[in-house]
Each structure stands twice: as C-alpha cells, then as structure tokens.
Amino acid sequence: MALAVILALVLAVPLIVASELEAERAAPSRAQGATPARAFAGIPQNGNALGSPSAPVTLVEYGDLQCPYCAQWAVHTLPVLVARYVRGGRLRIEFDGLAFLGPDSVTALRTAVAAGRQNRLWDVVDALYLRQGAENSGWLTPAVLGDVARAAGLDPARLARAREQTWVTQELLRAETSARRAGVRGTPSFAIGRTGRPPKRVELRSLDTAGILPAIDAALAK
Question: How many CB atoms neighbour CB 176 within 10 A?
C-alpha cells in the first residue's frame, strides 16, 4: 500500500493534537544525538511492549512521533515510570503509534513499528523523540533515520526495507483501531488496566509524573 494511501487512512482518525493538555511546547532537554538504547537495557521488549509480560498492569501510550507533547512526556516522565515500575516488573507499557501530523509522522512510525519485529521499537521511538524537529520541517532525513537505527543497534538498510512491508501497514491499522475504540482524540493519550483486560482511557491534567502516577498506583492496588 502506498504511503499516501496509508497517510489518508490515518488522517481519517478524528484526532486533535492535545492542545487541551496544559504543557509547555519544550524541545527535549537530553542532548541531541544521545544514545537512548541503554535506557531500556535489561528490560524485555516484545513488539510494541516494554516490560515483563507478567506485569500486573499495562499502560498503553498513543503518540505521534512528531508531537512535541509526546516528546516531552517521553523525555521527562517515561524514565521515571521505567525506574519506578517497569524495571521491577510491576508495569508494562505498550506504544500504539498514530500518524496524523504529516508525512514524516508516517515514516517515523513505520520505522518504529519495523524495529518492533527486532524487539527494538522503544529504542527507536526514544531516539526519534530525542532528535525531533519542528513539525513537517523536513527534519526526518535519511541521515537522521540512519542515526536512529544505529543508536538502537539496528542495521539502517535492513530497517529501511522492513518499514515498507505489509505487516507494518497492518500494525498501523491495528493501532488506529485501538485508538478509535479507546476514544482517543489527542496525543499523547493513555489507557491503563490490569494486564490481559481491556484498558480504560485516563485523562491527564499534566504530562509530568503527577499526571500519571495516581492512575498507575490505583490500577496496581486493584
């Protein structure tokens, strides 16, 4: 399926960028070009999932890799969740990517999903957020994609071939369906629940840790 068709399918999702969330439109504060892969060293990855499959609670993140709010959450809040819950086996996190901000969103997402086949989706997602430029500015160049692949420990040429595969398209459509069912209308959005059960969308008042920790603790207490 051509990228233009895929983009049209994803654009059909009735989503609105998360302007209702009060968060600064700040660029990632970690150094550009930093290697993110070690942030997840020792943590199981399986497709779009980060963390032990036996973790009692699953958090689903819906994000667009060009969304600056998503990058803010990934840089400042995600590391806290990884250290506090994921490494201890209490939480697993799934990334259901969406692409509605432009062609670079599609390319970035297809690259991340393709990396999931090698269990490196989260490394690629983090690397892309660290290198994120202004929306639709042409920041996602072949050079950037190559750097992202190498930072995640992947072969750039192999990853480029993989992102054009039909199974990647199918995964994008699955994530789109998941977002529809969850009632997602902006990014980043989140759903949480006991692992193995349908998660419920959670409304955040902020993108810092105070916005998400109560929902995680409540789910763990059930």
Answer: 22
The four Cα atoms 102, 198, 60, 175 give a dihedral, to 10 degrees, of -30
Adjacency order of strands within the sheet including 57-63: 45-46, 49-50, 91-97, 57-63, 189-194, 200-202
What kind and span of H or E run contains 95? strand 91-97
Residues 93-131: b if buried by 16+ CB within 10 A, e if exposed: bbbbbbbbbbbbbbbbbbbbbbbbbbebbbbbbbbbbbb
Tell me if 36 sits within 8 A of 123, measured CB to CB: yes
Number of H helices, E strands in the chain: 9, 6
Beta-bridge mates of residue 63: 97
Q: What is the DSSP letter of 82?
A: I
- With contact defined as beta carbons under 8 Å apart, do 51 and 121 qualify? no
Average pLDDT per consecutive 10 residues, the chain (222 residues; last block may be shorter)? 36 37 39 51 95 97 96 95 96 96 95 97 96 93 96 95 96 95 93 94 91 96 91
Estimate to the nearest angstrom the gap between the alpha carbon of 156 and the chain centroid. Answer: 20
The pTM (predicted TM-score) of the whole model is 0.83
Contacts of 141 (CB under 8 A, 6+ apart): none
Cβ within 8 Å of residue 5, ≥6 positions away: none
